[in-house]
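Sequence and fold:
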Amino acid sequence: NAVNTISNTAAAMTTPSAEDFLKAAAQGGMAEVQLGNLAATKSQNAEIKAFGKLMAADHAKVNAEVKALGAKLKITLPTDVGSHRSTIDDLSKAQANFDKDYVNAMVKDHEDDVAAFQKQADNAADADVKAFAAKTLPTLKGHLEKIKAIQAKMK
């Protein structure tokens, strides 16, 4: 189940360790780019296509910051999407339900991301991690508002 996988990853992101948070953020970010590209090509809905393109672009920028922060803190970040692979695989195969499945996954993912980044912005022991989380939060909150608005129209 795609949504459970995302929840489990988000749970890992709420741990206080800078390393765990950045590793989870790296994998989540790479997955967002891949899923965004998928939405941009597979969706029949213009708003979802546009949201997918936004995800790919915004998360590519965030990923670059995660990489830079990882390098600065001497943390080796994963180069694969980890547990997000199943979500990507499921959505790659989804046909008629693609839009609904993608939108639901994005709402859940961004709710979890906002919570995880908020925790780090409030409580991270590392000043750089704290600053990164705080700086990234408005972008993630914006994504959540956009995808919730799209979801509301689909019901």
Notes: The chain is about 80% helix and 0% strand. The mean pLDDT is 89. The radius of gyration is 15 Å. Residues 27 and 80 are 6 Å apart (CA to CA).
